[in-house]
Amino acid sequence: MKWIRRLLIAIAVLAAGVGVFVFSTALTTERPVGFQATRATGADGKPFVIGVWYPTDARPWPTVSGFAFATVARDAAIAGRGLPLVIISHGNGGAPMGHVDLALALASAGYIVAAPMHGGDNYEDQSAVGSAAFFSGRTRQLRATVDHMLARWPGHDRIDPDRIGAFGFSMGGFTVLTAVGATPDLGMVPTHCARSPEFACEVLRRAGSPLMTVGASAMEQNFVADPRIKAAVVAAPGFGFALASPTGGGVRVPVQLWSAEKDASVPYASNAGPLRQWLGAGVEFHSVPGAGHLSFLAPCTVLARQLEFCAEQGKFDRAAFHEAMNASVVRFFEQHIKQP
Question: What one GO molecular function would you report for this record (predicted)?
Answer without folding.
Answer: hydrolase activity
